[in-house]
Amino acid sequence: SITEKLTAAFSRLTSRGKLTEANIQEGLREVRQALLEADVNFKVAKDFIASVTAKAVGKEVIESIRPGQQIVKIVHDELVALMGPTDGYIHWQSSGPTVILMAGLQGSGKTTTCGKLAKYLVKKGKRPLLVAADVQRPAAIQQLQVLGKDLGVPVYAEPSGRPPKICERAIGHAKETDRDVVILDTAGRLHIDAALMQEVKEVADRTKPDEIFLVCDAMTGQDAVNSASAFHAQLPLTGVVLTKLDGDARGGAAMSVKAVTGKPIKFVGLGEKLDEFDEFHPDRMASRILG
Amino acid sequence: FAIGRKLDQDLIDELEEKLIAADMGPATATQIIDEVKAAYKARAFKDPNDVYVFLKDKIRALLGGPDAGGDIRFAATPPTVVLVVGVNGSGKTTSIAKLASILTKEKKKVLLAACDTFRAAAVEQLEIWSQRIGVEIIKAQTGADPAAVAFDAADAAVARKVDVLLVDTAGRLHTKENLMQELGKIQRVIKKKLPDAPHEVLLVLDATTGQNAIAQAKTFREVVDVTGLFLAKLDGTAKGGVVIGIRNEVGLPVKFVGVGETPDDVERFDPDAFAEALFE
Ligand SMILES: Nc1nc2c(ncn2[C@@H]2O[C@H](COP(=O)(O)OP(=O)(O)OP(=O)(O)O)[C@@H](O)[C@H]2O)c(=O)[nH]1
Ligand SMILES: Nc1nc2c(ncn2[C@@H]2O[C@H](COP(=O)(O)OP(=O)(O)OP(=O)(O)O)[C@@H](O)[C@H]2O)c(=O)[nH]1
Ligand SMILES: [Mg+2]
Ligand SMILES: [Mg+2]
């Protein structure tokens, strides 16, 4: 584990003196290695190590704990500070439905997360409307309809038409049927697909969402910074949902996405069932990334 | 790459970062860069372009070989059975549509088996592809036992004198013991009907996946006889460098790459083109 590696790296650190850049270099190399193995983007890891170095240097070596543990605590606390806090906050609208837009790469878990979010909101006493705005993928509309049926939540869909107009009309439909939250499921898209990025931007422009969530797969590697920063540049993201955390991916993408967007990771997906959904806990994520 | 750059330690450090950025992982990147450094010390390079050629050759050697980028390995007597597996959302169903399209163009008679009986509208999704491509499909209702559907499909493949049976399975995380057991059962049931089958087991891997792909490859290989990787979504900005680690640690070759969402967006894996794209 990282704690054992750091304890070994710092075994020669005497227990009287300060932490210096020189005496923590080797230990921090171990941290960098752990972060890269955990899929944290290499630039994000570099910046992080620099900030940990700044935090650690000059500190008195605490005599009561082993030096390696002291560095682990600084690293852990910095990671938690970077990725936190827990923030499942949703900007509820006082008049008119609250609109939530789900966006992200293909297969990241958007449609399933729409279902989970609907279930979560029903528990909170809300009346959500699911909107099947993925008119691209075969049976995407049906997929959302099956989830809606299982939850007893209505699904708005149209037989033809483009997503921006569909979503606009869906909000009108929500008002007519007294639904107070509208969840927009969109097609997966590449951040380098100009036409599709323009399309989701148009959906956002027309519907003025109160929340725009980037749905990101926890097993994503170095590329997480590329897609996250591109979505962040095109859409006023308000949060991130990290899915498939029930696997054993270390989840460094969480750190990368937070670092490049500055947006809170609000929720996590913990399975395929619609109740496998929770608020994001940065302390648990920090331990998982460090490994 | 490195036009007008001086060949020095800075360039080599930057190269290591490029390899990591490509998802090769720190261990593989270090291993490759150590060889670059050794060659550099031995004055093997005259200019930065030599380093580029060295790296490309190294990567091509790591990923090449007779089983890489090959075709579906056809059975001695039809049907050839291809089992498609992988974690959730990696691109299995779409990749099957692509293979069905290639095979149909090659005048092969193709049958699809909708063995994802779990996920919402999974069967409908594959059924739409079967209609668009013009191939038949064996399916049951949601909740049916996937192994039973696989058995019926193998049966139908023989009865209808099909050339290739493509079996779609539900996405499953390799950490889910019971789901991995279910997959093992699907393979066993197919074997009951056709002892040499499945002739290919393709693990569909999302090119955006990081080092977890190695654990995926290892674990899937434990329950089914994975013969190769189908690297999907390579049309994005992710480089898919983790396939080198998989080749090193699990021995699996990349057979196909997915480069888009339509049935035509598939290519046979080309180690040269892959190595080239890594440095773009
Ligand atoms: N294990 C696990 N599987 C998940 C989770 N979230 C989604 N999935 C699965 O991941 C796969 C993809 O989910 P979808 O909801 O279809 O993903 P999507 O982003 O809507 O896909 P596209 O619309 O094609 O871009 C499905 O098999 C889901 O059941 C999760 O938190 N854990
Ligand atoms: N850009 C791109 N998208 C792809 C590619 N392959 C698949 N996709 C998309 O990825 C998403 C998921 O594809 P599926 O075929 O449903 O994935 P799956 O593995 O069958 O998903 P589950 O059955 O839910 O586990 C869909 O939106 C596909 O269109 C590819 O090569 N490139
Ligand atoms: Mg979807
Ligand atoms: Mg599928």
Describe how the helices and strands are arranged.
The complex is a heterodimer of chains A (291) and B (280).
Chain A: H1 2-9, H2 21-37, H3 42-56, H4 67-83, E1 98-103, H5 110-123, E2 128-132, H6 140-151, E3 155-156, H7 163-176, E4 181-185, H8 194-207, E5 211-217, H9 224-234, E6 239-243, H10 252-261, E7 265-269, E8 277-279, H11 282-290
Parallel strand pairs in A: 1-4, 1-5, 2-3, 2-4, 5-6, 6-7
Antiparallel strand pairs in A: 7-8
Helix pairs in contact in A: 1-2, 1-4, 2-3, 3-4, 4-11, 5-6, 7-8, 9-10
Chain B: H1 9-21, H2 25-41, H3 48-63, E1 80-85, H4 92-105, E2 110-115, H5 122-133, E3 136-138, H6 146-159, E4 164-169, H7 177-193, E5 200-206, H8 212-223, E6 228-232, H9 242-250, E7 254-258, E8 266-268, H10 271-278
Parallel strand pairs in B: 1-4, 1-5, 2-3, 2-4, 5-6, 6-7
Antiparallel strand pairs in B: 7-8
The structure holds guanosine-5'-triphosphate (2 copies) and magnesium ion (2 copies).
Briefly, what is this?
The complex is a heterodimer of chains A (291) and B (280). With 291 residues, chain A is an alpha/beta fold.
